[in-house]
Every structure is written in C-alpha cells, then in structure tokens.
C-alpha cells in the first residue's frame, strides 16, 4: 500500500470502518495527479487531466464532425441532435444577448466554448475518467482569459481610448461627487474581479461537485463492514443522486459561462451613457 | 495516522494557482475545438440551415402561389357557371315566350281563317240563294204567265194584275213547299 494518497484509490485499500483505520476523506489531494509522463517538478509533464482535456477536444470535434461534415437538408438523427444543441446556444445565448447582427461574429467562439466546457465537465461522470477537467483552475482560467482579452480589446476598439475607459469605469456625470468612488469600484469590479469570478465560478462548482461524488463513493466503500453496510447503502444512493445532480450542474455551468461571456461582450459593445 | 501526516507534510499546491503546463494544454485543447468549429463545421451547417430555410420559405411561397391560382380559377369557373346558368334560363324563358306567342298567333290565324271560311260560305250560300231565288222567280213568273196566258187566253198585259197574280201563285207555291218540308 502506497503512502501517497494521490496514487491510492479508495477501493484499493482494505480500509473499512471498525477496522481501526480512519476515513480516507477526499481533499485537495484528490485533485492532484502524478504525471503519466515527465517530471512534476519541471514544467514538462503530462497527466490525467491533460489527457482528458485533449481527449475531450477530440470527442467534441468528432461528434460535430460526424454530424456537420456533410450536413443534409433533411437531417439524420445525429445531425438533428447536433443542430438542436447548436441552435440552442446560437439563438438562446448569442442572439438573445448580442442580437443577430452583432452576435453572428461570436457564434463560433461561444458555441465551441459551450461544448468544450460541457465535455470537460462531463468527464466527471464518465466511467474510468471520472474527473471533471474544469475542476483544475487552469482550464477555466485559460477560457476566462480568452474572454477577458476579447472584451477588453473590443471595448477599446469600439469606444477609443478615453471612451473605453469611460465604458469600463461606468463614467456617468450625473453621479456628481460619488463619481470617483463609483468609477473606482467599477474599475475593480470589471477589470480585476470579473475574469477571476468568471473562472472561479466554473472551477468551484466542478471542484465541489467532484469532492461530493468522491466523498460519497469513498464512504460507500469505507462503511462496508458490520452494521456500517446499512449506511453504505444510503451513501451509495447519494452517489447516484449526486451523479444525476452533477449532470445537471455540468450543463448549467457551461451555459452560465458562455452566457456571461456574451454579457461581457455585449457590455463592451454597448454605448456608454 | 501516518497517512494524515504524509498529507499534511506534503506541499499541497494552491488550487487557485494554475500550473503553466495545464494552462498551455487547456489553451491548445480549446483552440483546436474553436478552430475546427469556426473553419469548417459551423460554416457547413450554416449553409445547410440557410438552404433549408430558403427551401421551406420557397415551398411556402409556391404553395401560396398555387393556392392563389386555384382560388382565381375557381372564381372564374364559378363566374362562368353562373353565367351559363343565367344564359340557359334566359334562353328557356325566351323560348317559352316565343312558343307562347307562336301558339297564340297560330290560334288567331286559325280563328281568322275559320271565320273567313265561314263568312265566305255564308256569303256564297246567300248569293246562291238570292240568285236562285231571282232566277226561279223570273222563270216561274214567266212560265206561270205564259201558262196562264195560254190557259185563259187573255193577255195579262195589265202589269199590276200580272204581279198580283204571280205573287199569289208564288205564295201558294211557297206554302206548298213549306208544307212538304
């Protein structure tokens, strides 16, 4: 039995309740992986989340490639499903927030972002993978960074240098003496906090969800001893309930992420008052 | 217990600090998806969606055009039918009128002819009768005077007497004829 908890799955231990061994609770170590290749101390390594991220890309592309490579006027089942997803994001998110004219340009970004995030989240419940890639902050962060760069550059492109700053700081003469304070708050809220919350909202949801799943899964195993078996059953039911709940949260968080993306772009393009 | 100590002693990374390699992989993974979507898949499907929209709208337009045409043709037929009915009714009533007029005319003509024939017959009979009566009167008068002259030997030159005698004789004849009838 290895001492490194990152290398030990709960099921690989013989640790059960009443055996005098403590509950192997999940924690931050549940989100750390020994590299599959390379050295963790250097910056050259390859681990499970990376593999899942790339594999997820391949799956998303593969699915839509199969559906949209040779699209037909009368769609088959696969194309119909893909079209529904595409249309849902395009119409329900992009056109809804940005309008048809302004929004058209951002459809590829938002649509690909939604399905990418959704796939990364879905890994959480895929057998053997069972790890949401987005619970590693790097993945939401890089997406939030792309959105951040996009909307900041759009702001200055649309409104010019001074106008751009006015837009970001919510400049409004009517505020009078409160104006400097309001501008300071808006500056912090928009330019500094916004990308952070954008990324962390997704990350934290997936992190918490995965922790709960791991907790109940480990508990189901750990409690399998004596009277504990009854509790193990309850715990296992919770695993199933949480899995269903996670399926919902995964789609919802992907949706929220792209909806916020569109809202930021819309704010950047909007006329400042 | 030793396990917990191991965990505690291990330098656990702050979960909010992204490691560079994962950032890079994340970026690559997303950019691949975005590139394929933007370059190939979404233009592909957009084209088809647009074509489908046009096809549907075209189909609707076609159907609408066909409907309009059918309606106009129907109206036309209805108008034609109504006109034909009207015409037929008109012809029928005309024919009836004509027929009635013809019959009335024929009847009048027949009546007129009948009356003419009757009148002509009456006139003829009257004329014949008159002529016969005249001729008979003359002949009978002459015969009677001749006969009477021969019988009595006297000349019945006195005209008044002659007429009286003749008339009396004729009256007797007529009475006889009346009795014989």
Provide a descriptive summary of the structure in words.
- The complex is a heterodimer of chains A (273) and B (181).
- By secondary structure, chain A is mostly helical.
- Chain A has one domain (35-269).
- In chain A, 67% of the residues lie in helices and 1% in strands.
- Chain A has helices at 48-68, 77-103, 107-122, 138-169, 179-222, 228-269; strands at 37-38, 45-46.
- The model of chain A is unreliable at 1-7 (pLDDT under 50).
- Chain B has one domain (23-180).
- Chain B contains 3 helices and no strands.
- In chain B, helix 2 (20-152) crosses helix 3 (159-180).
- Chain B is rod-shaped, with a radius of gyration of 67 Å.
- Residues 4-10 of chain B have low confidence and may be disordered.
Task: Provide tags for this entry.
heterodimer; A: 273 residues; mainly alpha; two-stranded antiparallel sheet; 67% helix; 1% strand; disordered N terminus; B: mainly alpha; rod-shaped
């Amino acid at each position: 039995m290895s001492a490194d908890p990152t290398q030990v799955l709960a099921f690989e231990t013989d640790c059960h309740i009443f055996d005098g061994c403590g509950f192997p609770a999940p924690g931050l170590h549940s989100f750390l992986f020994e590299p599959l290749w390379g050295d963790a101390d250097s910056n050259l390594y390859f681990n499970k989340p990376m593999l899942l991220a790339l594999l997820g890309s391949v799956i998303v592309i593969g699915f839509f490639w199969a559906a949209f490579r040779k699209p037909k006027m009368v769609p088959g089942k696969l194309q119909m499903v893909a079209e529904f997803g595409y249309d849902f994001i395009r119409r329900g998110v992009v056109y809804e927030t940005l309008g048809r004219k302004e929004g058209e340009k951002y459809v590829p970004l938002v649509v690909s972002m939604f399905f990418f995030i959704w796939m990364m989240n879905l890994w959480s419940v895929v057998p053997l993978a069972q790890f949401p890639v987005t619970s590693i902050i790097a993945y939401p962060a890089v997406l939030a960074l792309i959105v951040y760069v996009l909307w900041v550059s759009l702001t200055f492109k649309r409104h010019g240098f001074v106008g751009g700053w006015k837009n970001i700081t919510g400049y409004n003469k009517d505020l009078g003496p409160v104006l400097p304070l309001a501008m300071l708050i808006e500056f912090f809220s928009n330019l500094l906090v916004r990308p952070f919350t954008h990324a962390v909202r997704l990350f934290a949801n997936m992190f918490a969800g995965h922790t709960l799943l791991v907790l109940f899964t480990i508990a189901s195993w750990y409690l399998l001893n004596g009277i504990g078996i009854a509790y193990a059953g309850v715990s296992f039911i919770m695993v199933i309930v949480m899995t269903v709940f996670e399926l919902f949260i995964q789609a919802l968080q992907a949706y929220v992420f792209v909806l916020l993306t569109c809202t930021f772009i819309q704010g950047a393009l909007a006329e400042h008052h | 217990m030793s396990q917990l100590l191991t965990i505690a002693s291990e330098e656990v990374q702050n979960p909010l600090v992204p490691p560079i390699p994962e950032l890079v992989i994340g970026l690559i993974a997303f950019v691949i998806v975005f590139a394929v979507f933007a370059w190939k898949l979404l233009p592909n499907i957009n084209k088809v969606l647009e074509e489908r929209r046009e096809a549907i709208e075209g189909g609707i337009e076609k159907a609408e055009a066909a409907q309009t045409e059918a309606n106009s043709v129907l109206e036309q037929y209805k108008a034609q039918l109504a006109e034909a009915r009207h015409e037929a009714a008109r012809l029928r009533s005309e024919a009836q009128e004509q027929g009635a007029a013809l019959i009335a005319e024929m009847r009048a003509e027949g009546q007129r002819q009948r009356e003419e024939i009757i009148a002509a017959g009456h006139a003829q009979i009257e004329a014949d009768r008159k002529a016969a009566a005249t001729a008979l009167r003359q002949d009978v008068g002459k015969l009677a005077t001749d006969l009477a002259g021969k019988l009595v030997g006297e000349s019945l030159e006195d005209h008044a007497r002659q007429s009286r005698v003749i008339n009396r004789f004729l009256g007797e004849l007529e009475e006889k004829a009346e009795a014989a009838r």
